[in-house]
């Protein structure tokens, strides 16, 4: 029985990662219905396993579950983006500031190492493999920034909010919402704040870093139908 449970867990994780990749590659579009029968046949899994994977995607805000429509890809919405950004500005900035104040040498080293990996990873291009690899490195870097806060619950909530922002981040980059930004320089400034233990700088730099993506996306949204009110 234990082996069977472990096998189902592995299958769930495989499907979760595969669908998450497709969502972030815009192969599954906002508002698109996810048909259980088709997906279960495609992956060769039971609908139970599929539902578990989709439920995990719902927890990240990438998929929505509706009693009448079933599972659908999350819609991109101005109100949701603003709400999400406001929460991140409160909680993620707090976690980073707490990490600067409380993090030990191990935390500091992990930030430097995660940044080194991110800098050496090719930036997002049209190549799906590069896009996925860069996103993983970017995700690990931001996790590292907040990992010294001393609050596992806060770190978990921050990670979930960041995952929910992935669709918006990809959309912003695709639609030109980040033109003119030096993202690499922003990341270097975050590392500088961490290793110099400058909490005031850390608060300012991360606030600007998170706000710029939202500002760029809202600017693009005003000129297109990409976001719903």
Q: Please count the helical segments.
A: 10
The percent of residues in helical segments reads over 70%
Strands ordered across the widest β-sheet = 1-3-2
Distance between the termini: 48 Å
Mean pLDDT: 85
> How many strands, which pairing sense, and closed or not: the largest β-sheet?
3 strands, antiparallel
Task: Provide the succession of SSEs.
Answer: HEHHEEHHHHHHH
Strand content: under 5%
Shape: globular
Structural category is mainly alpha
Rg, nearest Å: 19 Å
Which segments are poorly predicted (pLDDT under 50) over 5 or more consecutive residues?
none
Tell me the number of strands.
3
Feature tags:
229 residues; mainly alpha
Tell me about this structure.
The protein is mainly alpha-helical. The protein is 70% helix and 4% strand. It has helices at residues 2-24, 36-43, 47-59, 78-102, 105-119, 128-146, 152-164, 166-174, 183-195, 199-221; strands at 33-34, 63-66, 70-73. Strands 1-3-2 form a three-stranded antiparallel β-sheet. A hairpin with a 3-residue loop joins strand 2 (63-66) and strand 3. The termini are far apart. The model has no long low-confidence stretch (mean pLDDT 85).
């Amino acid at each position: 029985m234990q082996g069977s449970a472990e096998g189902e867990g592995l299958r769930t994780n495989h499907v979760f990662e595969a669908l998450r990749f497709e969502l972030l590659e815009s192969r599954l579009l906002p508002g698109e219905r996810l048909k259980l029968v088709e997906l279960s046949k495609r992956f060769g899994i039971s609908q139970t396993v599929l539902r578990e994977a989709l439920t995990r995607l719902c927890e990240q805000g990438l998929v929505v579950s509706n009693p009448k429509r079933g599972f659908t890809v999350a819609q991109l919405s101005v109100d949701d983006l603003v709400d999400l950004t406001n929460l991140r500005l409160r909680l993620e900035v707090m976690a980073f500031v707490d990490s600067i104040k409380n993090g030990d040498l191990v935390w500091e080293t992990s930030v430097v190492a995660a940044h080194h990996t991110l800098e050496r990873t090719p930036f997002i291009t049209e190549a799906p493999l590069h896009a996925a690899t860069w996103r993983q490195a970017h995700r690990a870097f931001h996790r590292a920034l907040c990992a010294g806060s001393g609050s596992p619950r806060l770190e978990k909530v921050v990670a979930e909010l960041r995952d929910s922002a992935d669709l918006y981040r990809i959309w912003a980059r695709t639609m030109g919402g980040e033109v003119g930004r030096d993202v690499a320089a922003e990341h270097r400034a975050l590392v500088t704040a961490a290793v110099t233990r400058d909490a005031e700088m850390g608060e300012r730099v991360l606030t600007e870093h998170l706000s710029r993506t939202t500002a760029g996306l809202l600017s693009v949204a005003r000129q297109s139908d990409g976001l719903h009110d």
